[in-house]
Predict the 3D structure of the following.
Amino acid sequence: MDKVYDVAVIGAGPAGCMAAIQASKSGAKVVLLEKNKELGKKILLSGGGRCNFTNNTSPEEFIERFGKAGNFLRPALSVFSNQDVISFFKDKGLKSRIEKDGRVFPVSNRAGSVLDVLRRCLRQETVEIFYNFRVQRIIRDENYFCIYIKGQNILKAKKVILATGGVTYRATGSSGEGLDIAKSLRHQIVEPTAGLIPLILKENWIKKVQGIALDRVKLIFRAKNKKIASGIGGIIFTHFGISGPLALDLSGLVAAELKKQQQVSLFLDIFPDISEQEWDKKLIGLFKDRGSSRVKNILSSFLPLRMVDTLSMVFGFDTACRASQLDRLQRLAIIRAFKKIVFTVKGTLPLDEGMVTQGGIPTREINPKTMESRIIPGFYFAGEIIDCSASSGGYNIQQAFSTGFLAGRSASYG
Ligand SMILES: Cc1cc2nc3c(=O)[nH]c(=O)nc-3n(C[C@H](O)[C@H](O)[C@H](O)COP(=O)(O)OP(=O)(O)OC[C@H]3O[C@@H](n4cnc5c(N)ncnc54)[C@H](O)[C@@H]3O)c2cc1C
Protein backbone atom coordinates (compact mmCIF):
# COMPACT_ATOMS: atom_id res chain seq x y z
CA MET A 1 0.00 0.00 0.00
CA ASP A 2 1.05 3.62 -0.57
CA LYS A 3 2.60 5.48 2.30
CA VAL A 4 -0.06 6.80 4.73
CA TYR A 5 0.26 9.97 6.85
CA ASP A 6 -1.99 11.49 9.47
CA VAL A 7 -1.62 14.93 7.92
CA ALA A 8 -0.30 16.03 4.52
CA VAL A 9 0.48 19.75 4.24
CA ILE A 10 0.70 21.09 0.70
CA GLY A 11 2.89 24.15 0.18
CA ALA A 12 5.90 25.16 2.28
CA GLY A 13 5.38 28.90 2.66
CA PRO A 14 4.91 30.43 6.12
CA ALA A 15 1.39 28.96 6.41
CA GLY A 16 2.37 25.41 5.41
CA CYS A 17 5.56 25.35 7.50
CA MET A 18 3.72 26.55 10.62
CA ALA A 19 0.87 24.08 9.99
CA ALA A 20 3.31 21.17 9.65
CA ILE A 21 5.24 22.18 12.79
CA GLN A 22 2.06 22.41 14.87
CA ALA A 23 0.49 19.21 13.54
CA SER A 24 3.68 17.31 14.28
CA LYS A 25 4.02 18.90 17.74
CA SER A 26 0.53 17.60 18.51
CA GLY A 27 1.66 14.05 17.74
CA ALA A 28 0.59 13.54 14.12
CA LYS A 29 2.71 11.86 11.46
CA VAL A 30 3.15 14.72 9.04
CA VAL A 31 4.42 15.15 5.51
CA LEU A 32 5.09 18.56 3.92
CA LEU A 33 4.89 18.65 0.14
CA GLU A 34 6.55 21.46 -1.78
CA LYS A 35 6.86 21.83 -5.52
CA ASN A 36 10.04 23.93 -5.35
CA LYS A 37 13.39 22.53 -4.38
CA GLU A 38 13.39 24.72 -1.26
CA LEU A 39 11.10 26.22 1.40
CA GLY A 40 9.50 29.66 1.47
CA LYS A 41 10.72 31.35 -1.71
CA LYS A 42 8.25 34.18 -1.18
CA ILE A 43 9.40 34.81 2.39
CA LEU A 44 12.86 35.54 1.02
CA LEU A 45 11.43 38.37 -1.09
CA SER A 46 9.25 39.76 1.66
CA GLY A 47 9.84 43.14 3.25
CA GLY A 48 12.49 43.97 0.64
CA GLY A 49 14.45 40.86 1.67
CA ARG A 50 14.16 41.71 5.37
CA CYS A 51 10.77 40.00 6.03
CA ASN A 52 8.29 42.17 7.90
CA PHE A 53 6.85 39.09 9.61
CA THR A 54 4.18 40.68 11.80
CA ASN A 55 2.98 43.97 13.24
CA ASN A 56 3.06 45.09 16.84
CA THR A 57 -0.42 46.63 16.77
CA SER A 58 -3.51 45.87 18.92
CA PRO A 59 -5.74 42.86 18.19
CA GLU A 60 -8.61 45.15 17.12
CA GLU A 61 -6.44 47.06 14.66
CA PHE A 62 -5.29 43.70 13.30
CA ILE A 63 -8.87 42.60 12.65
CA GLU A 64 -9.68 45.94 11.04
CA ARG A 65 -6.79 45.62 8.60
CA PHE A 66 -8.46 42.57 7.06
CA GLY A 67 -11.68 44.48 6.30
CA LYS A 68 -14.69 42.24 5.78
CA ALA A 69 -12.61 39.10 6.46
CA GLY A 70 -11.37 40.44 9.82
CA ASN A 71 -13.94 38.60 11.92
CA PHE A 72 -13.14 35.31 10.21
CA LEU A 73 -9.58 35.67 11.43
CA ARG A 74 -10.46 36.38 15.06
CA PRO A 75 -10.14 32.77 16.40
CA ALA A 76 -6.87 32.13 14.54
CA LEU A 77 -5.39 35.38 15.84
CA SER A 78 -6.50 34.59 19.36
CA VAL A 79 -4.78 31.18 19.40
CA PHE A 80 -1.61 32.48 17.74
CA SER A 81 -1.41 36.26 17.93
CA ASN A 82 1.25 38.70 16.75
CA GLN A 83 2.80 38.62 20.23
CA ASP A 84 2.83 34.79 20.09
CA VAL A 85 4.66 34.95 16.75
CA ILE A 86 7.25 37.35 18.17
CA SER A 87 7.74 35.03 21.21
CA PHE A 88 7.84 31.93 18.98
CA PHE A 89 10.79 33.35 17.05
CA LYS A 90 12.43 34.84 20.13
CA ASP A 91 12.37 31.44 21.88
CA LYS A 92 14.19 30.04 18.86
CA GLY A 93 16.88 32.72 19.07
CA LEU A 94 15.55 35.18 16.50
CA LYS A 95 15.45 38.68 17.93
CA SER A 96 13.12 41.19 16.33
CA ARG A 97 12.87 44.94 16.10
CA ILE A 98 9.78 47.13 15.85
CA GLU A 99 10.01 49.77 13.16
CA LYS A 100 7.77 52.51 11.75
CA ASP A 101 4.01 51.84 12.00
CA GLY A 102 4.60 48.80 14.22
CA ARG A 103 6.27 46.71 11.49
CA VAL A 104 8.31 43.88 13.01
CA PHE A 105 11.55 42.72 11.35
CA PRO A 106 14.32 40.34 12.40
CA VAL A 107 17.25 42.25 13.93
CA SER A 108 19.47 40.43 11.43
CA ASN A 109 17.61 42.29 8.63
CA ARG A 110 17.59 38.97 6.76
CA ALA A 111 14.40 37.24 5.66
CA GLY A 112 16.55 34.10 5.54
CA SER A 113 16.80 34.06 9.32
CA VAL A 114 12.99 33.65 9.62
CA LEU A 115 13.24 30.74 7.22
CA ASP A 116 16.18 29.27 9.16
CA VAL A 117 13.99 29.07 12.28
CA LEU A 118 11.15 27.38 10.40
CA ARG A 119 13.58 24.91 8.82
CA ARG A 120 15.07 24.08 12.22
CA CYS A 121 11.64 23.56 13.80
CA LEU A 122 10.54 21.28 10.96
CA ARG A 123 13.67 19.23 11.53
CA GLN A 124 13.15 19.12 15.31
CA GLU A 125 9.56 18.01 14.85
CA THR A 126 10.73 15.36 12.36
CA VAL A 127 8.37 16.51 9.65
CA GLU A 128 9.08 14.59 6.46
CA ILE A 129 9.54 17.02 3.57
CA PHE A 130 9.25 16.12 -0.11
CA TYR A 131 10.68 18.76 -2.44
CA ASN A 132 10.04 19.00 -6.18
CA PHE A 133 6.66 17.52 -5.33
CA ARG A 134 3.99 19.34 -7.30
CA VAL A 135 0.58 18.11 -6.20
CA GLN A 136 -1.77 17.99 -9.16
CA ARG A 137 -4.84 16.23 -7.90
CA ILE A 138 -6.41 15.07 -4.67
CA ILE A 139 -9.15 12.48 -4.56
CA ARG A 140 -11.10 11.47 -1.47
CA ASP A 141 -11.68 7.71 -1.23
CA GLU A 142 -13.54 6.04 1.61
CA ASN A 143 -10.81 6.48 4.21
CA TYR A 144 -8.10 8.72 2.87
CA PHE A 145 -7.15 11.64 0.70
CA CYS A 146 -5.12 10.26 -2.23
CA ILE A 147 -2.49 12.71 -3.40
CA TYR A 148 -1.39 12.62 -7.03
CA ILE A 149 1.59 13.95 -8.91
CA LYS A 150 1.99 13.37 -12.65
CA GLY A 151 -1.15 11.23 -12.69
CA GLN A 152 0.21 8.82 -10.09
CA ASN A 153 -1.17 8.33 -6.61
CA ILE A 154 1.97 8.83 -4.57
CA LEU A 155 0.71 8.98 -1.01
CA LYS A 156 -2.35 8.94 1.22
CA ALA A 157 -3.28 11.05 4.21
CA LYS A 158 -6.11 11.11 6.73
CA LYS A 159 -6.18 14.90 6.67
CA VAL A 160 -4.92 17.50 4.21
CA ILE A 161 -3.96 21.13 4.77
CA LEU A 162 -3.88 23.15 1.56
CA ALA A 163 -1.43 26.07 1.92
CA THR A 164 -0.43 26.76 -1.67
CA GLY A 165 -0.62 30.57 -1.46
CA GLY A 166 -2.20 33.08 -3.85
CA VAL A 167 -1.70 33.70 -7.57
CA THR A 168 0.90 36.47 -7.74
CA TYR A 169 4.70 36.33 -8.01
CA ARG A 170 4.16 32.96 -9.66
CA ALA A 171 7.89 32.37 -9.99
CA THR A 172 7.93 31.78 -6.23
CA GLY A 173 5.59 28.80 -6.69
CA SER A 174 2.23 30.33 -5.84
CA SER A 175 0.59 29.89 -9.21
CA GLY A 176 -2.98 29.08 -8.24
CA GLU A 177 -2.85 25.29 -8.57
CA GLY A 178 -4.25 24.94 -5.06
CA LEU A 179 -7.37 26.78 -6.19
CA ASP A 180 -7.88 24.26 -9.01
CA ILE A 181 -7.51 21.41 -6.53
CA ALA A 182 -10.06 23.00 -4.16
CA LYS A 183 -12.43 23.60 -7.09
CA SER A 184 -12.22 19.96 -8.11
CA LEU A 185 -13.32 19.12 -4.55
CA ARG A 186 -16.43 21.33 -4.95
CA HIS A 187 -15.16 24.53 -3.35
CA GLN A 188 -16.17 27.86 -4.85
CA ILE A 189 -13.46 30.35 -5.72
CA VAL A 190 -13.66 34.12 -5.32
CA GLU A 191 -11.95 35.30 -8.52
CA PRO A 192 -8.40 36.28 -7.59
CA THR A 193 -7.22 39.83 -8.19
CA ALA A 194 -4.04 41.54 -7.10
CA GLY A 195 -3.90 43.49 -3.87
CA LEU A 196 -0.99 45.75 -2.92
CA ILE A 197 -0.12 46.53 -6.52
CA PRO A 198 1.52 49.66 -7.98
CA LEU A 199 -0.74 51.96 -10.02
CA ILE A 200 -0.12 53.22 -13.55
CA LEU A 201 -0.91 56.91 -14.11
CA LYS A 202 -1.70 58.60 -17.43
CA GLU A 203 0.37 61.74 -16.87
CA ASN A 204 3.72 61.40 -18.60
CA TRP A 205 5.48 63.96 -16.44
CA ILE A 206 5.52 61.42 -13.62
CA LYS A 207 8.70 59.99 -15.21
CA LYS A 208 10.54 63.17 -14.23
CA VAL A 209 9.91 62.55 -10.53
CA GLN A 210 10.50 58.79 -10.48
CA GLY A 211 12.31 57.58 -7.38
CA ILE A 212 11.12 60.49 -5.21
CA ALA A 213 9.54 59.26 -1.98
CA LEU A 214 7.20 61.40 0.11
CA ASP A 215 6.58 60.32 3.70
CA ARG A 216 3.22 61.83 4.47
CA VAL A 217 0.80 62.74 1.71
CA LYS A 218 -2.95 62.40 1.31
CA LEU A 219 -4.40 60.39 -1.57
CA ILE A 220 -8.06 60.44 -2.56
CA PHE A 221 -9.32 58.17 -5.34
CA ARG A 222 -12.62 59.04 -6.97
CA ALA A 223 -14.75 57.28 -9.57
CA LYS A 224 -17.83 59.02 -10.98
CA ASN A 225 -17.21 61.75 -8.43
CA LYS A 226 -17.63 59.28 -5.57
CA LYS A 227 -14.77 58.75 -3.13
CA ILE A 228 -13.65 55.12 -3.36
CA ALA A 229 -10.53 55.19 -1.20
CA SER A 230 -8.42 57.67 0.72
CA GLY A 231 -5.67 57.80 3.28
CA ILE A 232 -2.56 59.51 4.57
CA GLY A 233 0.86 57.90 4.36
CA GLY A 234 3.97 57.36 2.27
CA ILE A 235 4.27 57.05 -1.51
CA ILE A 236 7.03 56.70 -4.06
CA PHE A 237 6.82 57.85 -7.67
CA THR A 238 7.87 55.32 -10.30
CA HIS A 239 8.51 55.68 -14.03
CA PHE A 240 4.91 54.56 -14.71
CA GLY A 241 2.96 55.91 -11.72
CA ILE A 242 2.98 55.46 -7.96
CA SER A 243 3.82 52.83 -5.41
CA GLY A 244 4.81 52.95 -1.74
CA PRO A 245 2.84 51.82 1.34
CA LEU A 246 -0.19 54.13 1.02
CA ALA A 247 -0.66 53.66 -2.74
CA LEU A 248 -0.29 49.88 -2.35
CA ASP A 249 -2.75 49.72 0.56
CA LEU A 250 -5.44 51.55 -1.41
CA SER A 251 -4.70 49.78 -4.70
CA GLY A 252 -7.07 46.85 -4.13
CA LEU A 253 -10.12 49.15 -3.99
CA VAL A 254 -8.88 51.05 -7.02
CA ALA A 255 -8.29 47.84 -8.98
CA ALA A 256 -11.84 46.67 -8.21
CA GLU A 257 -13.25 49.94 -9.55
CA LEU A 258 -11.09 49.80 -12.68
CA LYS A 259 -12.38 46.31 -13.31
CA LYS A 260 -15.89 47.76 -13.51
CA GLN A 261 -14.54 49.95 -16.33
CA GLN A 262 -14.84 53.07 -14.21
CA GLN A 263 -12.57 56.03 -14.81
CA VAL A 264 -10.62 56.61 -11.61
CA SER A 265 -9.05 59.96 -10.69
CA LEU A 266 -6.41 60.44 -8.06
CA PHE A 267 -6.13 63.65 -6.02
CA LEU A 268 -2.77 64.14 -4.35
CA ASP A 269 -2.25 66.54 -1.46
CA ILE A 270 1.48 66.68 -0.74
CA PHE A 271 1.00 68.59 2.51
CA PRO A 272 -2.15 67.29 4.24
CA ASP A 273 -1.27 69.00 7.53
CA ILE A 274 -1.07 72.53 6.11
CA SER A 275 -4.21 74.13 4.64
CA GLU A 276 -4.27 76.27 1.49
CA GLN A 277 -4.86 79.39 3.59
CA GLU A 278 -1.92 78.53 5.83
CA TRP A 279 0.31 78.01 2.79
CA ASP A 280 -0.78 81.35 1.37
CA LYS A 281 0.17 83.14 4.57
CA LYS A 282 3.42 81.21 4.87
CA LEU A 283 4.50 81.90 1.28
CA ILE A 284 3.60 85.60 1.50
CA GLY A 285 5.80 85.84 4.62
CA LEU A 286 8.66 83.83 3.15
CA PHE A 287 8.68 85.66 -0.19
CA LYS A 288 8.67 88.99 1.65
CA ASP A 289 11.46 88.05 4.08
CA ARG A 290 13.60 86.44 1.39
CA GLY A 291 12.65 88.64 -1.55
CA SER A 292 16.07 88.44 -3.22
CA SER A 293 16.25 84.60 -3.07
CA ARG A 294 15.32 82.49 -6.07
CA VAL A 295 11.88 80.87 -5.70
CA LYS A 296 13.36 77.40 -6.34
CA ASN A 297 15.77 77.83 -3.40
CA ILE A 298 12.90 78.67 -1.08
CA LEU A 299 10.62 75.87 -2.30
CA SER A 300 13.39 73.25 -2.21
CA SER A 301 13.36 73.47 1.59
CA PHE A 302 9.92 71.79 1.39
CA LEU A 303 10.36 69.38 -1.54
CA PRO A 304 13.23 67.81 -3.52
CA LEU A 305 14.47 70.22 -6.21
CA ARG A 306 13.57 67.80 -9.03
CA MET A 307 10.00 67.77 -7.77
CA VAL A 308 9.89 71.58 -7.52
CA ASP A 309 11.18 71.93 -11.11
CA THR A 310 8.66 69.41 -12.44
CA LEU A 311 5.73 70.98 -10.60
CA SER A 312 6.72 74.43 -11.84
CA MET A 313 6.56 73.10 -15.39
CA VAL A 314 3.20 71.36 -14.90
CA PHE A 315 1.52 74.15 -12.91
CA GLY A 316 3.16 77.04 -14.74
CA PHE A 317 4.96 78.99 -12.05
CA ASP A 318 8.39 80.52 -12.35
CA THR A 319 11.07 79.18 -10.01
CA ALA A 320 14.07 80.94 -11.53
CA CYS A 321 12.84 84.44 -10.64
CA ARG A 322 13.41 86.27 -7.34
CA ALA A 323 10.75 85.69 -4.69
CA SER A 324 9.83 89.40 -4.68
CA GLN A 325 8.89 89.16 -8.39
CA LEU A 326 6.27 86.44 -7.92
CA ASP A 327 2.66 87.64 -8.31
CA ARG A 328 -0.47 86.33 -6.60
CA LEU A 329 -1.51 84.07 -9.49
CA GLN A 330 1.88 82.36 -9.47
CA ARG A 331 1.69 81.94 -5.70
CA LEU A 332 -1.74 80.31 -6.05
CA ALA A 333 -0.31 77.98 -8.71
CA ILE A 334 2.35 76.84 -6.22
CA ILE A 335 -0.36 76.15 -3.63
CA ARG A 336 -2.35 74.17 -6.20
CA ALA A 337 0.75 72.13 -6.96
CA PHE A 338 1.25 71.43 -3.25
CA LYS A 339 -2.37 70.59 -2.46
CA LYS A 340 -4.36 69.66 -5.57
CA ILE A 341 -2.56 67.52 -8.11
CA VAL A 342 -5.00 65.47 -10.17
CA PHE A 343 -4.03 62.30 -12.05
CA THR A 344 -5.93 59.78 -14.11
CA VAL A 345 -5.35 56.17 -13.08
CA LYS A 346 -4.75 54.10 -16.22
CA GLY A 347 -4.50 50.72 -14.55
CA THR A 348 -2.39 48.54 -12.33
CA LEU A 349 0.72 46.55 -13.09
CA PRO A 350 -0.07 42.97 -14.24
CA LEU A 351 -1.65 40.57 -11.71
CA ASP A 352 1.65 38.80 -11.13
CA GLU A 353 3.14 41.97 -9.61
CA GLY A 354 0.65 42.09 -6.72
CA MET A 355 2.25 41.60 -3.33
CA VAL A 356 -0.82 39.76 -2.16
CA THR A 357 -3.84 38.05 -3.72
CA GLN A 358 -7.38 39.17 -3.03
CA GLY A 359 -9.87 36.35 -3.56
CA GLY A 360 -9.40 32.59 -3.32
CA ILE A 361 -11.34 30.23 -1.04
CA PRO A 362 -14.37 32.10 0.37
CA THR A 363 -14.23 32.41 4.16
CA ARG A 364 -17.87 31.24 4.41
CA GLU A 365 -16.69 27.79 3.25
CA ILE A 366 -14.16 27.45 6.09
CA ASN A 367 -14.82 26.97 9.81
CA PRO A 368 -12.90 29.87 11.42
CA LYS A 369 -12.43 27.94 14.66
CA THR A 370 -10.55 25.09 12.99
CA MET A 371 -9.76 26.17 9.39
CA GLU A 372 -11.54 22.98 8.27
CA SER A 373 -13.48 23.04 5.03
CA ARG A 374 -17.25 23.18 5.51
CA ILE A 375 -17.55 21.20 2.25
CA ILE A 376 -15.05 18.35 2.74
CA PRO A 377 -14.46 17.07 6.28
CA GLY A 378 -10.78 16.50 7.03
CA PHE A 379 -9.65 19.12 4.50
CA TYR A 380 -8.16 22.38 5.81
CA PHE A 381 -6.91 25.68 4.44
CA ALA A 382 -4.19 28.05 5.62
CA GLY A 383 -2.57 31.26 4.40
CA GLU A 384 -3.04 33.37 1.34
CA ILE A 385 -5.15 30.79 -0.51
CA ILE A 386 -8.00 31.99 1.71
CA ASP A 387 -9.90 35.11 0.62
CA CYS A 388 -8.52 37.08 3.54
CA SER A 389 -5.81 39.63 2.84
CA ALA A 390 -4.72 42.88 4.43
CA SER A 391 -2.77 46.03 3.81
CA SER A 392 1.02 46.04 4.00
CA GLY A 393 2.77 46.06 7.36
CA GLY A 394 3.38 42.40 8.27
CA TYR A 395 -0.32 41.48 8.44
CA ASN A 396 -0.30 38.94 5.63
CA ILE A 397 2.56 36.82 6.95
CA GLN A 398 0.92 36.94 10.39
CA GLN A 399 -2.31 35.69 8.75
CA ALA A 400 -0.31 32.80 7.24
CA PHE A 401 1.25 31.94 10.62
CA SER A 402 -2.02 32.19 12.56
CA THR A 403 -4.17 30.20 10.13
CA GLY A 404 -1.32 27.69 9.65
CA PHE A 405 -0.97 27.22 13.40
CA LEU A 406 -4.73 26.70 13.86
CA ALA A 407 -5.08 24.38 10.85
CA GLY A 408 -2.09 22.30 11.98
CA ARG A 409 -3.40 21.94 15.49
CA SER A 410 -6.98 21.17 14.43
CA ALA A 411 -5.96 18.65 11.77
CA SER A 412 -3.85 16.68 14.22
CA TYR A 413 -6.82 16.00 16.50
CA GLY A 414 -9.10 13.01 15.97
C1 LIG B 1 7.51 40.93 -3.02
C2 LIG B 1 6.64 40.57 -1.84
C3 LIG B 1 6.92 41.11 -0.59
C4 LIG B 1 6.10 40.80 0.50
N1 LIG B 1 6.40 41.33 1.71
C5 LIG B 1 5.63 41.03 2.78
C6 LIG B 1 5.98 41.50 4.08
O1 LIG B 1 7.04 42.11 4.29
N2 LIG B 1 5.13 41.21 5.10
C7 LIG B 1 3.97 40.48 4.92
O2 LIG B 1 3.23 40.25 5.89
N3 LIG B 1 3.67 39.97 3.71
C8 LIG B 1 4.47 40.22 2.65
N4 LIG B 1 4.17 39.67 1.44
C9 LIG B 1 3.04 38.72 1.34
C10 LIG B 1 3.44 37.36 1.96
O3 LIG B 1 4.73 37.00 1.49
C11 LIG B 1 2.42 36.27 1.64
O4 LIG B 1 1.15 36.72 2.06
C12 LIG B 1 2.78 34.97 2.34
O5 LIG B 1 4.00 34.46 1.86
C13 LIG B 1 1.68 33.92 2.12
O6 LIG B 1 2.09 32.73 2.72
P1 LIG B 1 1.51 31.32 2.24
O7 LIG B 1 2.27 30.29 3.02
O8 LIG B 1 0.04 31.33 2.31
O9 LIG B 1 1.86 31.22 0.69
P2 LIG B 1 3.28 31.22 -0.07
O10 LIG B 1 4.30 31.93 0.72
O11 LIG B 1 2.99 31.73 -1.43
O12 LIG B 1 3.68 29.70 -0.11
C14 LIG B 1 2.95 28.76 -0.88
C15 LIG B 1 3.84 27.57 -1.19
O13 LIG B 1 3.05 26.56 -1.82
C16 LIG B 1 3.83 25.95 -2.84
N5 LIG B 1 2.91 25.33 -3.82
C17 LIG B 1 2.02 25.95 -4.63
N6 LIG B 1 1.36 25.05 -5.38
C18 LIG B 1 1.83 23.82 -5.04
C19 LIG B 1 1.53 22.51 -5.47
N7 LIG B 1 0.62 22.27 -6.41
N8 LIG B 1 2.20 21.46 -4.90
C20 LIG B 1 3.16 21.71 -3.95
N9 LIG B 1 3.49 22.94 -3.51
C21 LIG B 1 2.82 24.00 -4.04
C22 LIG B 1 4.61 27.12 -3.42
O14 LIG B 1 5.74 26.67 -4.15
C23 LIG B 1 4.97 27.91 -2.16
O15 LIG B 1 6.20 27.49 -1.61
C24 LIG B 1 4.98 39.94 0.33
C25 LIG B 1 4.73 39.38 -0.91
C26 LIG B 1 5.55 39.68 -1.99
C27 LIG B 1 5.28 39.04 -3.32
Observations:
- The mean pLDDT is 95.
- The first helix runs from residue 14 to 25.
